[in-house]
């Protein structure tokens, strides 16, 4: 079993393409099923020990994986029972069923077991699951001491995480076969999946993959000849709520910026002495040493603010647009900007900028980035970072304690610091590095923290990289 950080994320269609490449290269579907079942069996043995296992098999290849796993578990001395929704229908699943020489119970009549392994439906499910499957599955999962699902929890759509079942069963562990899928990382369905681990089955899943799970970034320490300007100068455009801009400014400093300039008529108390504050002026962004501009935190939305945004948009510096500034874009795109533009909307701001969306958050963010010509950091319990070229990084399992005022301003400041730096990372990877630091700081703090605490904690996170 492999942890998921840095692993590619494939849609159902992309997974089928990866399997087809293996088949075209000479690997049979039966061989792939044998690998999958063996990997699942090994994982179950490690997780469940000698506890009795009930394997639930569906009619397709996911069920075939279950039959193979059951056969191998029994051969290794584990007490195994199998229950099925019906006869296998695919050729490979039929062959896998013949390899299981024990009885097969009906799902509806199956008695509980300490360990339940769900192999009913996998990535191919696209229709609703009726109660004849949902109800007994839920009862068996609830009764089990340990619940494990093969590839995708039965009743969830692979690409969106949407529920296709009335009663959704929550699993302790999901064993993703070959590659992660969107269902494993999107917020609501990720909770249903529980802990996700990858089971390798010998597929090339990197070729053509356009999305991956966020991973710990590699960021260099300043060189011996670094200066405050070469480390990155960030200009933060303040507005009617100076505290938000000050939070973003402190986060930028703690995320690695060498010089942060807050353009505001008011400097809130208790800000770091290293923060430079000047009044806004039309030529405030003309300094060639500025490495990136951040506009939006606490900005407001009046006519004076619109003129500030116009100046920022006209600049040739990397630009991070957050908060109030997002509401003032009015359909503006950024294909013509010479420097990268990064938008950091939460859910409501995303709708305000790009309109209502449904389906996959990954695809929504990818489409928004392509349309706007900007890197889009679509925030939430799952944060999706999308580049205009189609590349996506997903940060799952965000701390629920981040749902407090100011934490978005802290993230915006960290994004600006990375945008201003001389890092060799690609533009969307820089934003992803900031998201990772933001999440790591929240994990270090634990619970009931303030955004001020979060900004300060980023120093410790950055120092550990």
Describe the structure.
- The chain is α/β, with parallel strands linked by helices and 465 residues long.
- It folds into two domains: 8-205, Rossmann fold, CATH 3.40.50.10260; 233-464, Ribokinase (UDP-N-acetylmuramoyl-L-alanine:D-glutamate ligase, 3-Layer(aba) Sandwich), CATH 3.40.1190.20.
- 38% of the residues lie in helices and 16% in strands.
- It is built from 15 helices and 18 strands.
- It has helices at residues 12-24, 29-48, 61-75, 91-98, 131-143, 182-185, 187-193, 242-254, 303-314, 323-327, 347-354, 361-372, 407-420, 427-445, 451-464; strands spanning 8-9, 53-57, 80-84, 104-106, 115-119, 146-150, 173-177, 195-199, 211-213, 233-237, 259-263, 276-278, 292-295, 319-321, 341-343, 375-378, 383-386, 392-395.
- It has an eleven-stranded mixed β-sheet with strand order 1-9-18-17-16-15-14-13-10-11-12, with helices on both faces. Strands 4-3-2-5-6-7-8 form a seven-stranded parallel β-sheet, sandwiched between helices.
- Helix 3 (61-75) runs parallel beside helix 4 (91-98) and helix 13 (407-420) packs across helix 14 (427-445).
- The longest helix has 20 residues, at 29-48.
- 54% of the residues are buried.
In a few lines, what is going on in this structure?
The protein is an alpha/beta fold and 465 residues long. Helix content is 38%, strand content 16%. The chain has 15 helices and 18 strands.
SSE map:
Elements: E1 8-9, H1 12-24, H2 29-48, E2 53-57, H3 61-75, E3 80-84, H4 91-98, E4 104-106, E5 115-119, H5 131-143, E6 146-150, E7 173-177, H6 182-185, H7 187-193, E8 195-199, E9 211-213, E10 233-237, H8 242-254, E11 259-263, E12 276-278, E13 292-295, H9 303-314, E14 319-321, H10 323-327, E15 341-343, H11 347-354, H12 361-372, E16 375-378, E17 383-386, E18 392-395, H13 407-420, H14 427-445, H15 451-464
Parallel strand pairs: 2-3, 2-5, 3-4, 5-6, 6-7, 7-8, 9-18, 10-11, 10-13, 11-12, 13-14, 14-15, 15-16
Antiparallel strand pairs: 1-9, 16-17, 17-18
């Amino acid at each position: 079993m492999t942890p998921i950080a840095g692993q590619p994320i494939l849609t159902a269609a992309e997974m089928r393409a990866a399997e087809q490449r293996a088949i075209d290269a000479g690997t049979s579907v039966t061989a792939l099923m044998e690998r999958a079942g063996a990997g699942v069996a090994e994982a179950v043995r490690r997780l469940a020990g000698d506890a009795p296992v009930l394997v639930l098999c569906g009619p397709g290849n996911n069920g075939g994986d279950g039959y193979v796993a059951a056969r191998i578990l029994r051969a290794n001395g584990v007490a195994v029972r199998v229950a099925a929704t019906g006869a296998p229908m695919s050729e490979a699943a039929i062959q896998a069923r013949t390899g299981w020489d024990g009885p097969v119970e009906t799902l509806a009549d199956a008695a509980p077991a300490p360990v339940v392994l769900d192999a009913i439906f996998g990535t191919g499910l696209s229709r609703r699951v009726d109660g004849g499957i949902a109800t007994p599955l839920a009862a068996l999962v609830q009764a089990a001491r340990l619940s494990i699902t093969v590839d995708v929890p039965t009743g969830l759509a692979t690409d969106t995480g949407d529920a296709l079942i009335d009663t959704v069963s929550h699993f302790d562990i999901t064993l993703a076969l070959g590659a992660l899928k969107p269902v494993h990382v999107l917020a609501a369905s990720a909770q249903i999946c529980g802990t996700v681990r990858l089971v390798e089955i010998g597929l090339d899943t990197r070729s053509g993959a356009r999305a991956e799970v966020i991973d710990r970034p590699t960021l260099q320490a300043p060189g011996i000849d670094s200066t405050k300007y070469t480390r990155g100068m960030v200009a933060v455009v303040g507005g009617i709520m100076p505290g938000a801009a000050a939070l973003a400014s402190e986060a930028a400093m703690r995320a690695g910026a060498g010089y942060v300039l807050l353009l505001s008529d008011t400097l809130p108390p208790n800000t770091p002495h290293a923060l430079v504050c000047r009044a806004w002026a039309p030529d405030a962004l003309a300094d060639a040493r500025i490495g990136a501009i951040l506009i939006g935190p606490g900005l407001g939305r009046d006519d004076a603010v619109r003129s500030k945004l116009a100046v920022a948009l006209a600049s040739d510096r990397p630009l991070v647009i957050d908060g109030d500034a997002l509401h003032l874009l009015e359909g503006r795109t950024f294909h013509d900007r010479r420097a990268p533009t990064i938008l950091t909307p939460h859910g409501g701001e995303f709708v305000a900028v790009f309109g209502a969306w449904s389906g996959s958050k990954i695809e929504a963010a990818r489409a928004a980035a392509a349309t706007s010509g900007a890197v889009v950091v679509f925030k939430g319990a799952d944060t999706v970072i999308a580049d205009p070229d189609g590349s996506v990084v997903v940060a799952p399992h965000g701390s629920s304690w981040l749902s407090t005022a100011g934490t978005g301003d802290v993230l915006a400041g960290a994004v600006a610091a990375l945008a201003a730096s001389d890092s060799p990372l690609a533009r969307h990877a820089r934003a992803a590095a900031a998201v990772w630091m933001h999440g790591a700081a929240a994990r270090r703090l634990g619970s009931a923290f303030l955004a001020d605490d979060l900004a300060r904690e980023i120093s410790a996170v950055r120092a550990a990289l």
